[in-house]
Amino acid sequence: MFEDNDVSASKSKPRPAYVRMMEAVQRGAVTGVVVWDVDRLTRTPRELEDVIDFADRVGLRLASVGGDIDLGTEQGRMMARMKGTVARYEIEQSRRRLRAKHVELAASGRHNGPRPFGWDFREDRSLAINPAEAAVIRECVDRVLAGEGIWKICRDLNDRGILTSTGRPWVPQVLRRMVLRWRNCGVRTHNGKEAGEGQWEAVVDRETHERVVALLTDPARRSNNRGTAPKYLLTSVARCGECGKYVVGTNEHTYKLKSGRTRTFLHAYKCPHAGCMKVQRNMAEVDELVSGVVVGVLERNGVRLLGGDPVAAAQARDRVNALEAKLALAADQYAEDVITGDQMKRISERLRPQLEAERGRLMQSQPDPALASFTGADVAEAWERADVEVRKRIIRTLGMEVSIERVGSGNGRTFDPESVCISWADTREPDTQRSQ
Ligand SMILES: [Zn+2]
């Protein structure tokens, strides 16, 4: 029994069981095939010709529930070919109809799809401005143009109880998409391209919208290219949820498909380890999520978290002093010929790493004056201004651990904040939370 039930014959997905079955036919292990209908067996005329070939060579008998087809006879083959052609034609027709319908809708400038934030449906499903939501769009646009971070605006909207058109709280990627919609300035798009004037009232003017697009899609905003400075926020920080190794950042790149169309891959975090490579996630969205959590934590506990730990600092300082005293003693004993050069070397080799470790602990437990601006009420602004290097230092100081989990089914295009796990290396952050 070879089952490919979920895979429609019309799609170009692989059909593993079909491949295995044809291999079995080739080996001679299978001499007859029973299918629901011939058009369920082969997806292209070419596959059908393969089946006919096999039928000739190994005497394969083909039966369909809808009536036997004997591929050994001329008439049987004709029937199979006809059925295949008809099935193919129907698939192509329905695709063409659907495409034509979308093109027609786009050209008419009519809205297609669920209710967009900012407008309500009239009875004929045309769009009428929703004044309260339109005011929110204008406010978001103004704040973005003033340089405010998306995730900050997002939190503010949620604090004020403003919900999306589907009645959910805002998340940064949804808000970002919302302010980037060409619909806002009355333009109807189709497949990401401008298709004409939309049959609805614009909320912002076109020039303003173009500025928003330019600002939010500016690559300089996302990455920070300054020679050897780190480029990505979470490299050497975030780990692959499958194998536990650090993820790497990948550049935005455009890939040309065989069909001649191009596909652009945005910046991403990705597990680079051969044997795993199971995790990949949109960088901007992961960064935005982590930034939101960091700012939230610093706003509540920044003084304590970045202000150092006096108890730990005192303990580390004592241990540093003790180790330095031991080393000094060994040096004295060597100078006085109490110990040999070999003994001196062994003592020193044992104590030096301990000393380095304690010095590290002392550094970590002391307040870092460079991070003082990340403790007040203006954490969000300070974070927005900081470069990647400083942001990374803060994440490390906080002992934040990020793990990017593998996501199961789905097309992988919608970002699930739950798939990014945030935890804390020690207990300094008491109200541990996964996301904002
Ligand atoms: Zn991995």
What's the helix and strand layout?
Elements lengths: L15 H12 L4 E4 L2 H4 L3 H14 L2 E4 L2 E3 L4 H35 L10 E3 L5 E3 L1 H15 L4 H10 L12 H9 L6 E4 L2 E5 L8 H11 L2 H4 L15 E3 L7 E3 L2 E4 L5 E4 L2 E3 L9 E3 H24 L3 H26 L5 H25 L13 H7 L2 H10 L2 E5 L15 E5 L12
Parallel strand pairs: 1-2, 8-14
Antiparallel strand pairs: 2-3, 4-5, 6-7, 9-12, 10-11, 12-13, 14-15
Helix pairs in contact: 3-4, 6-7, 11-12
The chain binds zinc ion.
The site of zinc ion has 9 residues, from loops.
In a few lines, what is going on in this structure?
This protein is α+β, with helices and mostly antiparallel strands and 436 residues long.
Can you tell me about this structure?
With 436 residues, the protein is α+β, with helices and mostly antiparallel strands. It is 47% helix and 13% strand. It contains 14 helices and 15 strands. The chain has helices at 16-27, 38-41, 45-58, 74-108, 131-145, 150-159, 172-180, 206-216, 219-222, 283-306, 310-335, 341-365, 379-385, 388-397, and strands spanning 32-35, 61-64, 67-69, 119-121, 127-129, 187-190, 193-197, 238-240, 248-250, 253-256, 262-265, 268-270, 280-282, 400-404, 420-424. A 3-stranded mixed β-sheet has the order 1-2-3. A 3-stranded mixed β-sheet has the order 8-14-15. The longest helix has 35 residues, at 74-108. It is flat, with a radius of gyration of 32 Å. The protein starts with 15 loop residues before the first helix and ends in a 12-residue tail after the last strand. The structure holds zinc ion. Zinc ion is lined by residues 240, 242-243, 245, 271, 273, 276, 278-279.
